[in-house]
Amino acid sequence: MNLAIDVRGLTKRFGRKIAVNHVDIAVPEGQVWGFLGPNGSGKTTTIRMLCGLLRADEGQGTCLGLDLRTQSEAIKRQVGYMTQRFSFWEDLSVRENLDFVARLYGIRDRRRRVDEALDHLRLSQRQRQLAGELSGGWKQRMALAACMLHEPRLLLLDEPTAGVDPKARRDFWEEIHTLSDRGLTVLVSTHYMDEAERCDRIVYILNGSLVARGSVAEVLEKSGLHTFVLAGDNVRQLSRELEGKPGVDYVGFFGAALHVSGHDRDGLVAALAPYRARDGIRVSETTTSLEDVFIDLQEAAK
Amino acid sequence: MNFSLRRVFAILTKEFLQLARDKLTLAMIIGVPLLQLCIFGFAINLNPRELPTVIAVDDPGPLARSIVAALNNSSYFQIVAQTNSPDTARSMLQEGQAIFVVEIPVNFSRDIIRGATPDLLIEADATDPAAGSYALAAFNTLATVALRDDLVGPLKARAQGPPPFNLVSHLLYNPESNTQYNIVPGLLAVILTMTMVLMTCLALTRERERGTYENLLAMPATPLEIMIGKITPNIVIGAIQSSLILLMARFIFDVPMIGSLTLLAGGLTLYIVANLAVGYTFSTMAQNQLQAMQMTLFFILPTVMLSGFAFPFMGMPAWARWLGEILPATHFLRIVRGILLKGNGAAEIWPELWPLVLFTLAAGAVAVLRFRRTLD
Predict the structure, then answer these.
(1) Residue in B212, B221, B375 nearest the CB of A104
(2) To bridge B367 with a disulfide, which of B159, B165, B280, B330 should be the other Cys (CB 3.0-4.6 Å)?
(3) Do A53 and B211 touch (CB under 8 A)?
């Protein structure tokens, strides 16, 4: 299987701070990978290094078979990069933006290709509107159309769905999967767990280092985490009490219920035993969620 | 309505914190008054002295020597050259190496001794009427007093009466001492600097501030392509502004245009490019549009004050003239006044052209070196 991204030991320092610390990523062609991690953990920096916007201080590897260090200009031509913040020209219309991008890439038959892109993402009606006047969902759709105009083989998306409503988010992911079915490789960073679950593989980065990787099921299994739900009257008030008890590693709110997680199942059961006897409180085991795992990883790193 | 000192204090604290973080604004708060004080306090002199003067003397007599000595001793004139050819002297005036030519004709001493009243000619470069007016006024007295000591014995009678010579003063290039003739072409330099530096500086900074810069870099556009694409519209804008100013100079202010307009267009293009290079260099440093404005202001201040636009260049002390010589506006002012008022040709403006070229190359090199292909 060919690897669309194959980097080893990718490192970036800003002054004395290490933003990305020896990260290895190998993404096979045609897969959708989720890139997760808390704010400031190095997701954006990693993506910027992959598309040649930042020079890596250490590390080597290839993007689409091209050397990351010496062929970054060639990489740029085959990669679509969608920035975290909307970064198209708000004082140009939708069509003018796409036209500009098409010219920069030297796309042939420009008018037809821009028309197609507008049609495909149902932007035709809005092509004369200024990009700055679009709502969040439409902006994101336009950005995707612009990133796809030059038919890249690799798509790097930096939190593309931040601040986008659920319906637009779902449409966006459908589009991503359609593209992936056609062979496009996608690396997408996100904070949403439901989006992580739509990915073939996920990698989790924390303080610049990759701390978990694999399919969602693998990550869950490897975490070795057990989780119980406490439901019932006023369970939320028990969270303080539970935190710090032997066997309890992490307590979190899930709606009106509490999730209590720990690596030692017996200890966890023992810690929860007094509560089973209480009136109006139900204790039951549940499957650990991705969010539990990530919060646990974050807590463990402290 | 209630008023709370605590809230006022909260806002005060916030303002001071933000101010302390804004290093460039802090630098401006100290830098601008410092710069202004130095320029107005030390550099600007509305009664310029030690003005470069050429003496064209073709008379070996003692009276001519006395006049030369008197000029040398006066604080108004500084003799930069002495020649016996009026033509050489005139060409130095044309090139701006001197702003006065004092011409003592053949047989000056002999004529006075014989009782005649020979001409004593002073030619002044009046492109900047303010620069030489005091010195010119002082010249007559200076020469008369200088001769008084020589006119002794049988010549004593001549020392008492009217001056024994006939002072002829020629205001060259601007005979009516029309201030507009000086200011209007000068405005061309100042207005172009103002708009060209600011526009270019904003062009790139705006992209950075709005986040579109990252996108531009992620696409296959090279620094040179971005630079040319960003700068060309400003050259067009500069050309439009120049035409507008020149048309107004011609038809509203009646500024004479003796020299070649084609040559002027060449000088203008070079000057515009020099300013664009400055703007582009600034734009690689400024983090946001406010900083771009501040940097532009910092550049315009000396351009107006030290270039010879607002105040006579010759009146400034050496250090200020050195600073002035670095600025493109200083050289362009001489070019535009030279071409329009003196009818200078390519050979005469060459001494001002090469510093402009040098400046443009240096500023352009800094701009290209500072331009990053990445976000590092």
Answers:
(1) B221
(2) B280
(3) no
Tokens of residue A189, six digits: 């960073």
Within a 10 A sphere around the Cβ of B279, how many other Cβ atoms? 30
Locate B8 and state its tokens: 């006022």
CA proximity to A152, closest of A103, A98, A73, A79: A79
DSSP E strand stretches across B97-195: 100-104, 119-125, 166-172
Answer with the residue of higher pLDDT: A78 or B126: A78
Q: What is the pLDDT of residue B373?
A: 66
Q: Residue B163 and residue B166: Cα distance in Å, rounded? A: 7
- Helix or strand run (H / E) with residue B12: helix B5-21
Per-residue pLDDT at B159 exceeds 80 = no
- Give the pLDDT confidence of A84-113 residue by residue, as tens digits: 899 999 999 999 999 999 999 999 999 999
B375–A54 C-beta distance less than 8 A: yes
Both tokens assigned to B364: 């352009």
Task: Note whether B218 contacts A88, CB cutoff 8 Å.
Answer: no
Of A83-97, B1-15, B103-117, the range with the highest mean pLDDT is A83-97
Give the rounded percent of residues in chain A with a pLDDT score beyond 90. 58
ipTM of the complex: 0.83
How far CA A239 is from CA of A201, A297, B230, in Å, comes to 33, 19, 59
**Chain B residues with at least one Cβ partner in A under 8 Å:** 210-215, 217-221, 374-376
A52 and B374 within 8 Å at the Cβ level: the answer is yes
DSSP labels, B114-128? TT---EEEEEEE-SS
Joined together, the tokens standing for residue A2 give 């060919």
B59 has a pLDDT exceeding 90:
no
Q: For A178-187, what is each residue's pLDDT tens digit?
A: 999 999 999 9
Q: What is the pLDDT of residue B154?
A: 73
In degrees and rounded to multiples of 5, residue A282 shows phi and psi of: -110, 130
**Structure confidence at residue B46 (pLDDT):** 79
CA distance A89 to A98: 10
How near does any CA of chain B get to the CA of A166, in Å? Answer: 25
Nearest CA in chain B to A56: B376
Quick check: A81 contacting B, CB < 8 Å?
Answer: yes
Is the pLDDT assigned to residue B118 strictly greater than 80? yes
Tell me the C-alpha distance between B195 and B202, whole Å.
Answer: 10
